[in-house]
Write a structure and sequence with these properties.
Shape: globular
Helix content: 25-40%
Largest sheet: 5 strands, parallel
Order of helices and strands: EEHHEHEHHE
Strand order of the largest sheet: 2-1-3-4-5
Structural class: alpha/beta
Oligomer: single chain
């Protein structure tokens, strides 16, 4: 599965996903600074299966009935790599189970 990490997620987190996931960052794709709606459309058009973010306000900024791909919000005290890395297993399990096109929250 192709996964896009939002620009609010530490780039190095992508290396902690299993090899069965193709992880790219918003910066790698040249999409930094794009608004979330446009970012979701571009991700879907380019074959991404999900967007992973730490932006807790994401669900309040989007029409949840029109999401083109699932969005996973990682909830941690801080957005440092050390605090997000333990959540990757839950993200992988969720996405491996064919997550619905909605907002999913993953926390410790």
């Amino acid at each position: 599965m192709r996964v896009l990490l939002d620009e609010s997620v530490p780039r190095r987190l992508g290396a902690t996903f299993p090899n069965s996931f193709e992880v790219h960052t918003v910066q790698q794709m040249g999409w930094a600074g794009y608004l979330n709606g446009r970012l979701l459309r571009l991700a879907a058009e380019h074959g991404f299966g999900a967007l992973v973010t730490v932006d807790r306000g994401f669900e309040y900024e989007q029409n949840l009935h029109e999401l083109p791909i699932p969005v996973v919000i990682m909830i941690a005290r801080r957005t440092r790599l050390q605090e997000l890395q333990p959540l990757v297993g839950k993200v992988v399990a969720l996405l491996s189970a064919n997550a619905e096109r909605r907002i999913h929250r993953v926390d410790a």
